[in-house]
């Protein structure tokens, strides 16, 4: 849950909050335009943190997650997923180290269940798993001035602000999703001061703006409606470094590897826009003319787009994409306009 004092602080800055998620700061459409062209500031309390500690942590995580945990260094994070024995994604996340702890960030709505499931496999290993979501305030800063503003405020250098780089200062951890999109993890004591300073010349925006940026970057977020729906490759985790095909066993590894080497992946995740004013949601079905009433895909993530409609990440059958007409929610629904991802799909 969002920290009570932090909620009050944000509401004093005109934040509209529902279900521990900042909806807006007064004007959703204007905030989307700011996200498109200017530098923005947003609360990320809808993400949670699981903290792993103990002598056996690295080996334990290596045996449970799809990514190569050995690649996670003090200044380097990793995308990854946690799967069922059938290779279906229960959650995807970013993973990094802070001192002797391993930090896993994922939607806060999934934290409790994932913590409980992973704890079942600790057995006699020296591993402790704690939900530390309330220990840190998570703030997103994005736009062309993002790095410069953080450098000025935090009096630190971000000259090497590369994708998935992590930097630690006495006040914060700074996580770089991209050179112009960063996350700050700070204590509650420091968060208010930081927000006050940054918001003087950066536009505060609702969480949907950050969601939209994630979608445009082609980074999926598995939510409750899409758990156990996809193999990691279907949501492009193999392309963004969230799957290792060289490491040892983990839940679902055999199926994930077999799909990679022996099978032909029939579905991939695409970026698209849907011209509709009706809410588009994760888990919504997609259809094409040839499949009639049988779904040919699902929405993974959706967010209002600055230029209208909804931008989405959607897992779709290759054959359906080739037809050129994929419909949202029913065979006669609005058509998806396929856009270009910032990375190349192996199709």
From TrEMBL:
Recorded superkingdom: Bacteria
GO biological process: iron-sulfur cluster assembly
Database matches in PANTHER family: TRANSFERASE CAF17, MITOCHONDRIAL-RELATED
Annotated binding of substrate, by residue: 183
Annotated transmembrane regions: none
Protein name as it appears in the record: GCVT N-terminal domain-containing protein
Stretches assigned to the GCVT N-terminal domain: 25-239
UniProt-listed Gene3D superfamilies: 2.40.30.160, 3.30.70.1630, Aminomethyltransferase beta-barrel domains (3.30.70.1400)
């Amino acid at each position: 849950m969002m920290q009570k004092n932090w909620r009050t602080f944000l509401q004093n800055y005109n934040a509209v909050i529902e279900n521990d998620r900042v909806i807006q700061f007064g004007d959703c459409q204007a905030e989307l335009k700011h996200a498109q062209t200017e530098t923005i500031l947003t609360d990320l309390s809808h993400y949670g943190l699981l903290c792993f500690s103990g002598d056996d942590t690295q080996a334990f995580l290596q045996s449970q997650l799809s990514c190569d945990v050995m690649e996670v260094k003090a200044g380097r994070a990793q995308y990854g997923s946690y799967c069922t024995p059938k290779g279906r994604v229960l959650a995807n996340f970013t993973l990094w180290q802070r001192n002797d702890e391993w930090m896993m960030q994922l939607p806060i709505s999934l934290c409790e269940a994932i913590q409980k499931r992973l704890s079942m496999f600790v057995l006699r290993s020296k591993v402790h798993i704690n939900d530390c979501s309330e220990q840190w305030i998570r703030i997103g800063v994005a736009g062309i001035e993002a790095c410069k503003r953080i450098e000025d405020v935090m009096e630190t250098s971000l000259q090497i602000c590369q994708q998935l780089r992590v930097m630690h200062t006495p006040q914060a951890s700074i996580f770089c999703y991209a050179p112009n999109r960063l996350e700050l993890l700070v204590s509650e004591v420091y968060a208010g001061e930081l927000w006050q300073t940054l918001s003087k010349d950066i536009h505060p925006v609702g969480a949907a703006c950050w969601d939209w940026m994630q979608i445009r970057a082609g980074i999926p977020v598995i939510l409750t409606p899409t758990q156990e729906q996809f193999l990691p490759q279907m949501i492009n985790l193999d392309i963004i470094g969230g799957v290792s095909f060289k490491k040892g066993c983990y839940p679902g590894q055999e199926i994930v590897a077999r799909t990679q080497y022996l099978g032909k992946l029939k579905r991939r995740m695409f970026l698209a826009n849907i011209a509709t004013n009706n809410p588009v949601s994760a888990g919504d079905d997609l259809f094409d003319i040839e499949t009639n009433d049988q779904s040919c895909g699902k929405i993974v993530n959706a967010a209002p787009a600055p230029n209208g409609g909804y931008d989405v990440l959607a897992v779709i059958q290759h054959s359906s994409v080739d037809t050129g007409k994929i419909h949202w929610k029913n065979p006669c629904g609005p058509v998806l306009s396929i856009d270009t991802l910032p990375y190349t799909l192996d199709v």
